[in-house]
Amino acid sequence: MFTGLVESLGRVVEAVPEPPGLRLVVDADQVATDASLGDSICTSGCCLSVVWIDGSRLVFELGPETLARTTLGGLKQGAPVNLERSLRLSDRLGGHLVTGHVDGMGRLAAKVQEGDWVTCRFTAPPQLLAQMASKGSVAIDGVSLTLVDVTPTEFSVALIPHTLAHTTLGSLAVGDGVNLETDLVFKYVDRWLAARQPS
Hints:
By secondary structure, the chain is mostly beta strands. It has 4 helices and 12 strands, in the order βββββαβββαβββαβα.
């Protein structure tokens, strides 16, 4: 479990195909200082398990499901990734409850500069948009954000200068794909309501 508050930006050292999966090596900087084998690290929104440690480098193995549901398979050497260690039960929950289980991918449709802030509009699959609400929460590439508006075809978020400077969201270009995780509570309510509908 995570909060969606990015601790640091890592850099992809290499992405090596290992069919049917991929071995991802990330220079994780401070996140690697107390890492242990088997630890869960939220990597641009996706919960990955550490399978090897080499100094500041963490190695992850990505399976077919991860490659199909996330943008991680397209990462190239040098690409930045958002990193967050798993939540301790004694930690403050500064963002929202994030599982690191990506629900699907979205795409940046527009960026509007408003002073030091940037408002971003993303397209997303209809089933994910149905689990979003204005002023609710969403995780984009592992970053906990408040939704501004939600329509049948897209949603928007406002990014503050800190988020722009300290996460990968600041370097997104129109057309780029992102990993999306909708709010955990919203998903359970949605599932409960669907189960109560007569078949």
